[in-house]
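Lab meeting, item 3. Inverse folding demo.
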């Protein structure tokens, strides 16, 4: 009886160790990321519910799913917030971003990354932007999706910087 119990115990734990490896992807924040936001800069980021966690999403053949065993090391909101804060170092601007879509799409044999967000920038005046980006030329799978996220967020940061620069000339 003891042998059967030990055998069952060994089989149970050896089966658990056969699970696929879980991969975490850490999107990069470019050079300015090391700076801390100072002088009153405020960044708020909100996302739709499916982006509230660390899952990486894709859509293929009309089915919308997260990649299995692949996660972001940060949530979407955390990554976007830290990226924008690095661009606002030394500014007193307030930025609110609401991400409404962010996923990799496989369409007609190619893949692209789709990103949509509402942006509110307050410096000297309040400016609203709606951004809908399609990023082509990325790889397939979760690694390609992370590349799409990085490029999308970099575009959002450029839009915010351009609006702040435009506002400072007025």
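The presenter then showed the designed sequence:
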């Amino acid at each position: 009886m003891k042998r059967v119990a030990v055998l069952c115990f060994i089989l149970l734990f050896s089966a658990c160790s056969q699970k696929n490896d879980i991969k975490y992807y850490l999107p990069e924040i470019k050079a300015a990321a090391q700076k801390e936001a100072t002088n009153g800069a405020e960044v708020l980021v909100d996302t739709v519910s499916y982006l509230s966690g660390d899952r990486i999403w894709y859509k293929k053949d009309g089915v919308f799913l997260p990649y299995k065993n692949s996660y972001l090391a940060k949530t979407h909101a955390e990554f976007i917030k830290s990226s924008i804060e690095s661009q606002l170092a030394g500014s007193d601007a307030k930025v609110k971003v609401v991400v409404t879509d962010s996923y990799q799409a496989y369409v007609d044999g190619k893949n692209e990354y789709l990103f949509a967000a509402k942006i509110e920038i307050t410096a000297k005046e309040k400016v609203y932007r709606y951004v809908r980006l399609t990023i082509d030329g990325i790889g397939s799978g979760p690694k390609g999706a992370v590349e799409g996220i990085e490029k999308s967020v970099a575009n959002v940061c450029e839009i915010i910087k351009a609006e702040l620069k435009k506002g400072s000339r007025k």
